[in-house]
Each structure stands twice: as structure tokens, then as C-alpha cells.
Amino acid sequence: MIPVIEKTLVSWDKPFLESAADLLLQQEDNEQSGRPLDLGNVLVLMQTSNAGRRLRELIAMRMWRKCKKGIFPPLTGTPYQLVRPTSNSLKVATPMQCLLGWCHVLDGLDWQKLIGLFPKPEALKGASARLALANSLESLRTRLTDADLDCRAVFDSGKVHESEARRWETLAYLEEIYLQQLTAKGFTDPRVLQRESASIGNVPEGISRIVLLGVTDLSPLTQKALAQLPDDILVQIVCFGEEGSLEDAFDNWGRPKTSYWKDRNLDWENIHVSLDEVEECQKIAGFFEGLKPERRASVGIGVVDSNLVPIIKRSLDGVGCNAYDPAGDPAHKLGLHSLLKSLLEWVRQKSFRQAEALLRFPVIQEVLDCKNTTELLHGLDLLRNYALPSTLADALAVQPLKLFPKGGRRERQNDADRSKLKLALTVLGQLEKRLQPFAQQDFSAALKQFLEGMNLEPWANLQGFLFETLNDLSGLGEGLATTLQFQIVVEQLGKLRTTSVHESSAIELQGWLELVWEDAPHLLLAGFQDSAVPESISGDLFIPESLQVELGLPGNEARLVRDAWQSEAILQTRKNREGRVDVMLCRKDIDGNSLLPSRLLFHCADILLPARVNSLFGDLPIASSAPPWSAPWKLQPEAKVRNTISVTHFKNYLDSPLMFFLKREGSDEVDPDKADMSPSDFGTLLHAVLETLKGKADSCTDPDQITKYLKSQFSSKAKARFGEINSALLKAQFGSALERLRFAAIKQSEVAGEGWRIHDVERRIQLDLCGIKVTGIIDRIDYNENSGKWRLIDYKTSGTSIPPLNAHWGVVSRSKKLKESPSWARFNDVDGNECAWRDLQLPLYVLAWKSEISSGEDVQAGYFNLPSSENDSGFKELILSRDILDSATKCAEAIIEKITKVQQFWPLGRKLELYEQSYKRLFFHDLEATLEPPVVQDEEASNG
User: Fold this and answer.
1) In the CATH scheme, what is the code of domain 4-84+202-255?
2) Rounded to whole angstroms, how far apart are CA atoms 762 and 169?
């Protein structure tokens, strides 16, 4: 049986849709004018399904307008409708089941015997690597099926170079195992059924005419299917082109001929080159700005590079236009896919970080009945920042009372933090119970149980597919690792595209192959870059481009020819109706990577080529400057009047009045990626250990005994806070801490030998200045019974030794920053140098302690440095004369006045690059544009 195949040419002097409708409506029976026109016996095959939908709509509309008649429309589809898998006694494997079959094959291989095909088998260990290989093998079979081949047929074809013959024989062997695997499980591979379908001429019942409209990519498989049709079916191949070009321009299957189209000159008149993708999309939006809705229908957008779709949507939204992608939105950007990806990472790692990520999904909080999200998230932050758990089990082992003990100077804050931590641990415990099935049941049942009771309604269009996919796992999923099954499900879900309701006036963002069917007189071509058009075809892991062409599959030259024809069609269908085509492209993508213009833009007359090259690569015109960035609103920092100020806050004010305000009000950054101790954590832990010296080892002069004691205390306190240590980062920090404690033990034995004993630790002090209570906590107070002297010590645990003098003041002439210091912050040192204060901590400690002991005993102050070097460890005194103490008092009183009376926290007086990184991010590099001057309110004002 050989069908009747006709090849006809339709002129492209008007839109393709109109010409196609004219062709199909020629069957109208005028004698049956009262009856609907029946085109149900016609199967129309086009490049895309969306083009078929538009054609059916146009035919129905034209029939109704012409004679108020209805119509039985033709069936429409793509050429692959001819090779749909036929049914047999076995189930047709879904794409996911095909991947599962390949994964079973790969899991059972002796890789050393396949060294010729896989020279580095060690690179194929792990679920991700195996799945990537399974995808490559499935992709290979898909390509070969288009050529009506499989791996064995390629090996037998004689077209494989002798150096590659062994590889293809191995591929054929793997393919046979794969097919046997599917059959044993009761499935048939869809590629096998497609080839069988092509051999029997599979068409829907009642079809007597098949029309191929502008199909330029007819594969060998679909060619075979057409050749096998019954002889009573008419096959009409419709080509679109210029009059009289049918035989010269198109082959027998309607594909553009290379000789005719490869070097065709294209009349691109309106080319717009932008610097980057954002600017390009803004230009596109500019075409619509100010257009009334009824006028927008005359402008179409073709998105050649699909990466531009979200940027174009945002740009159009900025000018009041809605836009949508008819192909749908990618599912991998939806919440359900993100949730499953986070869950997959937890199944892989069992880490606290992934458990924490799950609890940040509202749907998880809801199913766990957590009503106070703010408290939960704060509790998780506390757990991460204080305990640094590696796994969920580590987190659940944390004891809130040990992390935040009762009593002490932070009692109120500890009570609040403990409450939040308990909430976080409670919810984490509930999450752990919900996750337990993944360790006890098969993956499909475990995931269904995990999702049970969750509100998945926002993702209803994905929910059905997800549960169908889980059902498909039965049989073929058995025996594979849970993580591999899970990864396949997430991957398959991410490949989906979902459609949503859009306004009738929304702008359609069409893909390249749709554009010959776009009838808008004005067309914008976005993303006209090389590799996007013509589409680049590169060889994959197994089949190079040259072999693809040899086997009858399209190569880069065929794509160039097809896209040259399509470009000319887009131009010609607008030429006779005074239409317009604007080509949009740019030099860089959104990540700053260089982009090249499409080679189709160089298809022009030789005389025009120099100007074309200059326009594409020459200097761009200076764009009109964008309006300066501005925040939509400003943050308003507020605080209540306080009658106390901490000793350590004076440094913040001297550093920056605004930073003083923000830090005093608790504006500190939370690190979501914290994996080890911060410098503050490190210091706090060492402080806690050294506090225990009082009365236990402060009189000991044996450094080894002190070291042993400190190590014991460190181990106890570290375990209380962090539990069992699994983190390599923490272990390294603990090693550093123990080494520093050994240095401290040596120095402590020396001061004990000099007669110093610890009088108190963590001692609260208070000093009244200008009606304000200046408070502080001295890390350690020593007393020497031999000399009657006092020593106030502040521990410093930074990596390098800090001289207390440099930390507290500096010579003005030697520091650019200190030159900006006000007069009340300056004094002359013993050498007559003009100095300025950086910090008042130790002088205020001395003043407060002297007022407390009310005696004339000498009071020293300094740092006990605990750096990474033994030579720099130990006590470093800050010499404080009476004049220096008086200057410190004067400076403190001036700051108190600025805080309480003048309320001077603004202007800044510092450049932004000097701020902490956290505030840079908070204020978007433009602090004065995002922040109002801080306001301090008294209690009555704040209550009023």
C-alpha cells in the first residue's frame, strides 16, 4: 500500500493562518449551507500543538462570521501523532519507568568489563551520576528512534567508524538488557512501540486526508509512517514560499533545501542591540507603554531565547501589561517542587540544616500545627547559632536549660530564649516523627505518608501527577536506593510545565517555532542570539553530530536552513501589508556572560555587511540614564529612653553614633549558614572555662595541673552546649581552643607565683555619670595580698594579641578616622601627642572599681590576651594616669549628653564601606536613602 502524496505550494504573501484556513475551507459544500461543515475526516499536522489550536479557532470564527454555521473542525496535532505507541498486552512504560529500568541495568553492571565504553567507572558512583547516565542513554534512544533505529541497528548499519564499533556493540548489549528488564516487569518500551506504529501506518479511525502544513522537521520515522499509510488516504504536503519555487526550495517531504536557503539574504531592517538582557526587555516593554489594550493585539512577541521569558514578564508588568507563556510555567519554580527538593536533601544528609529548611515551609508549619511562626524561626536561629548541630539527632539532643541556664546576668533574656528554643525542639521532634517512615518503609509509601494531611491545593495541577508518579514506582522502583527513586521523582516533576488562568488581553510570549503562525502585523523577536537561532545541535556523550547527520537526523546545517526559511517567512508575510519586524538582542546575559548575535543577521547583501557588522559589534549609543535608585519607604529606627548605658557601648558611639543606636537596640545579623563558632562564640566558651579558675586552680603554680583542669572544664562545657561533636570545623576550633588554654595555664601559673589571686569573676559594676547609670561586667578581678594591688582583667581571644593602648586611643595625626574626632574625645598623652579615644572600657572599669572599694589601693587594668601564639599570651597592662582617667570621664559625660539630651545619632560621619557587612545589605548601599534619623521617645510619648 502506497498512499497518494501531493506536494503543493502556498504563497506567503499573507499570514500563514489565513492561507491555511483558505485551503481547508475549500471543501465547503455550498449546497448544504444549512448544515455545519464537517472536516472531521481531516488530520492536520503542524510543527506545534499550539499552532493547531489557533487554526481550529480561526476556521470556526470564519465560518460563523461568513454564514453563521458551525463546523466539525479537523483533528490537529504534530507529526508524532503518526507514531504514537500502539497498545499491546504489556503496559507502555512512562518516561520515569524507562529511567528506572536503566537504573536497574546500571546497578547490576560489572563496570570493569565495560572499560571501553566507560573508561572511568569510578566517576559513575553515586545516585546522581547513575541517573545522569540513565538520562543520557534514554536521550540516545529517543534520537535514534527518530531515525527509525536503535543501538543494534546503528551497529549493524556499517555507518559507524571502526574505532567506535566496540562502543556501539556495548551500547547494543546494554539496550538488550534494558528491554529484557522492562519486559520482565510487564512493560514495553515506548520507543519500540513507536517504531512498530510507524510500520503499520497508524492513523485515527475515519481519517481520509492528512495535511502537513509548513512542517519542516519531518523525521525519518514519521516519513516511514506516512509511506505506510493505506492508499485510500490522501497525504497533502503544503509548503509556504514564493511563487514558482516549489521544486527548487523544498524536498519531497516539504523540508527546505540547503542549496536554496543556506545563503539566502534576509531583509532585516530593524535591529536593536542592547547592553544586557534587562535593557533589551525594557526596550520590548517600551513598545507597549502607552498602547491601549485594543492596540496591543497588533504587536506580537516571539521569544527566541526562553531564558528571557521571566525578565520580559517583569518588564511588561512595569508598564501595566500582563504576559504569559503558552507553554506554561516551569514546575521547578513552584513551591511543591522546592519542598520535595528540600525533603530529598534531608533524606540524603539527615542534616539539621535540611530539617530547618523544611520547617520554613508554611505548609509544613501548618501540618505540624505550629501557630507561632516568629517564635519558631527565632528558636531555630538560636539552636543553630548556639548549639551548631550537624544532624537532626544532634539538635534534638540539645538541653535548653544547659544552653540557657537559669539565673545569672542574662536571666530574663535566657528565660525568653529558652522558651523559644523549647518550641523549636518540640516542632523538630514532630517533624522527626513525620520523617521516620523514610527509614522504615519503601519510598513511595513513605512520601505519601509524609504528605498526608498537607494542604497541597495551591499546587493541585501538580498533585495528581505526583501521586501518579509515585504509583508508577511500584514494581520498577523496588531494589533501587531511596535517594535515587526520590531524585527521579523530583526530576520528572521539575520537567512539567503548568498553566494558569490569564486575562484575555494578556500578551502571549511565543516560542520560535510558533512565529510563522503569528498573524500580528508587528512582531518583536526577543533574544535573537547565536545558539538560540539557529538552534545549536552538538554531539552528546555517545553520538557525534556527524554520525547524527549520517543516520538521517538533522544537524547544524539543517537547523540553519530551516531557520533561514522561517526568518524569511516571518519577513515576507508582513511585507505586503506594511507590517514590521523588530529584532532584539544584547551583548551580555543577566550573569554578565558574553552573547553573540545570530548568524542569520549576517545573511545580507555584501554591500550591507560592513554596516551590519558595525551595528552589531560597534559602540552602543549612550542610553538615557536610569533614574537613581530609591527605596519605596524609609525605615524609622525608634527606641525608648533608658537610664543606663553599658561600658562597651561607648566604643560603638565613638565608632559611629548610628551603629551605637542600632547595636544598642539589638539589631544584629543572624547567619543562616553558620557552621562553626563565630569569634564571639569562641570567646564566650573560653570565658566560661576560665571563670572556673576562681577558688579551684587560681593559686596553683603548676602549669600542667592547670592545663589538665582547664581541659576538663572545656570538655564539660563544650559538650553541654554542642553535644556530641561530628563537625570537622568544630573539632578544628576545639583544638585551637585547647591550645590557647594551655598557653593560658602557663601564664596563669606565673601570675599565681607573683601572688595574684582571683577575687571575683563576671563582676557587675556601676558608675553614676550625669544622672545615668554606667554599667558593666568585669571578666575577672585579681587581688595581690603581697602588694595590696587590684587588677581588672578583660579576656581577649582574637587570633592576634591586642595591645590595650591601641584599642583605647590613638595619635590623631596618625589616623585619618581619628582626625574627625570631636574636641571632647581628645587629650594629650604623657609624650605631648594629641590623642583621641577609641574605647573607654578599661578606664571606666577602673573608675567604677575605685568608687566601689573606696580605698587608696592601686588599681591596674589590662587585657589577658589568648591569641594563637604563646609568646603573645598573658596580661598586658594599660597605664592609666589621673589625667587620662579625667579625660575618659569627660569623654563619657559628653557621649551621655549626646545620647540623652541632644540625641545625636545622625548624620553618620562615616563612609558606608566602613560599616559592617550586615548593615551594608540591610541598607542597600545607600543608608541615607533607606533610613530616617533615629528617634528616642520617653515612656509617656511611646504610650500616648
Assistant:
1) 3.40.50.300
2) 78
